[in-house]
Amino acid sequence: MSAKVRTCLWFERDGMAAARFYVSLLPDSRIEQVAGFEDPTTGDPQGVMLIDFTLAGAPYQILAAGPHQAHNDMASILVLTDDQAETDRLWTALTADGGQPVQCGWLEDRWGIAWQIVPRALGALMSQGDAAAAGRVQAAMLAMQKLDIAALEAAHRGDEG
């Protein structure tokens, strides 16, 4: 565990499955270390387990230690995407098997972790110095669940539609 600071996510169950899923989503992601016991057949945690992993270069830890607090959106994992294909791929993967879309690029995955899947284009469109265009982009974003780059760009231009 080389990082001095890590975000720790407490999981009631399925911590190892979640870590494996998360690292499959993004480049520069890997499970670094697992401490505790796991079933050799299923890989499921048996008792308290710490899973240190890196997600797109950012250090995380899962503490699989049973019921404690429910996850909520007071903290979220933000992923800046490069294009619509990446946005769509992550959105589809994270909302599958019980995940739920929320609003404005937010979603909740099957384990209850809040994510924001945000195209880099949104920041560019909101910061180009044109307050009216930024307002149209914001209004368009507020009406979306998964963010649509083409629709955000159209709103920036003032296109009807």
CATH class of the largest domain equals Alpha Beta
Would you tell me the overall average pLDDT?
Answer: 91
Tell me the total number of β-strands.
8
How is the main sheet built?
4 strands, mixed
What's the SSE pattern?
EHEEEEHEEEHHH
Q: Helix segment count?
A: 5
Assign the CATH architecture of the largest domain: Roll
Structural write-up:
The structure is a single chain. The chain is built from 5 helices and 8 strands; from the N terminus they run E-H-E-E-E-E-H-E-E-E-H-H-H. With 161 residues, the protein is α/β, with parallel strands linked by helices. Strands 1-4-3-2 form a 4-stranded mixed beta sheet. It has a 4-stranded mixed beta sheet with strand order 5-8-7-6. The longest helix is centred in the middle third of the chain and has 12 residues, at 84-95.
